[in-house]
Design a protein that fits this description.
about 350 residues, 14 helices, mainly alpha
Length: about 350
């Protein structure tokens, strides 16, 4: 018995047990997963933006928070009253265009070649999940809107009283459950340092990808621009796979507008976006632990989508990065060394 107690007192054993307890609690709260994730995302992003503005302008933090949430509220109001009707109308037209383009595209030589390659990489799984996501999103829009409102409200209160909440939580450090506080604080700091930063990086990458793609779509005179830009932004939140998935409908529409030439332009655009993401944004925004092989990234996305649905595609990779960080897995892409041979060697 004493040996068991000594074994349980080890920090590594205690940490694993507490981590398992946290996962079990999250499983019990799975019905609130939308609210929890949205609250964390809004709180984290607003906190980062508030800190940035405070460093630049030296305005009181609470005033910055209030102004940010006023801007968010105005943005939501304008989106619902001005842009939502336009997006709905354009989405219906876009769906019709894609269906017509799919018939023409499938019968062409280029279409058959691309579709055969897509079947090899099982892209139809992603497309099926994408359609399912859209249907589920429209059917559960009411509950999602409530979760969105509550998440904004909770994140507002958190941002306004962040220091008081930190002081309140620190009071548990010297309490009878201080050991529990230390472990939860450890996981919390690692979670914010990995999950939060990877999620923030995904948002920045999605914005840059959307801007680059939008310029090309405007130049090529694509129809239904609002819906296409919204689609590109949402898909860009999915690491690596989102950029590839967006190529399919964009190529179909491009084929109906300008033929093979526009399809080539869209392929070059996606290649450009992927190069910017892989060689410019990822090295600057992500740490060494997030430089994962593309194969592993796809595996994580497939499993996370299977178990967690739409949220799995967006938060699956950040959660995986958090896990390998907790396990202290040291991974870094090996640097390529270029050697020059001398004459005569």
């Amino acid at each position: 018995m004493n040996r068991l107690i000594d074994y349980l007192k080890r920090q590594s054993v205690r940490r694993v047990l507490i981590f398992g307890l946290l996962i079990f609690i999250l499983y019990l709260l799975k019905s609130l997963i939308n609210l929890l994730l949205l609250t964390f995302i809004f709180s984290f992003l607003v906190d980062r933006l508030e800190a940035f503005v405070h460093r630049k302008l030296r305005i009181p933090r609470r005033l910055i928070v209030v102004l940010l949430y006023i801007l968010i509220a105005l943005g939501i109001y304008v989106s619902l009253t001005v842009y939502l009707p336009v997006i709905i109308e354009q989405t219906v037209e876009l769906f019709k265009s894609i269906m017509e383009a799919a018939k023409d595209f499938q019968g062409s030589v280029l279409g058959n070649a691309i579709l055969s390659q897509l079947k090899k990489y099982n892209v139809n799984t992603y497309l099926g999940s994408g359609v399912k996501i859209l249907i589920d999103s429209f059917s559960s829009f009411g509950s999602f809107a409530v979760d969105l409102f509550l998440a904004l409200l909770l994140s507002l209160f958190f941002s306004l009283e962040k220091n008081r909440l930190i002081q309140f939580a620190a009071g548990f450090k010297e309490s009878k459950i201080g050991f529990l506080y230390n472990e939860v604080a450890f996981f919390g700091s690692r979670f914010v340092g990995t999950f939060g930063k990877v999620l923030e990086a995904q948002f920045i990458i999605a914005i840059v990808n959307t801007l680059i793609t939008s310029v090309i779509l405007i130049v090529l005179h694509f129809p239904q621009l609002f819906s296409l830009i919204l689609m590109v932004f949402v898909l860009s939140l999915i690491p690596v796979a989102g950029v590839i998935i967006s190529l399919i409908p964009l190529s179909m529409i491009g084929y109906t507008i300008g033929g093979v030439q526009d399809v080539i332009y869209m392929v070059l655009t996606i290649l450009l976006v992927h190069c910017v993401e892989a060689y410019v944004l990822n090295p600057k925004l992500m740490s060494a632990k997030t430089e994962l092989p593309v194969f592993l990234t796809f595996v994580v996305l497939i499993f996370s989508e299977h178990f967690f649905g739409i949220w799995g595609l967006i938060v699956g990779l950040p959660v995986f990065v958090f896990l390998i960080d907790v396990l202290n897995v040291q991974y870094k892409r090996p640097e390529k060394k270029i050697t020059f041979k001398r004459r005569g060697d």
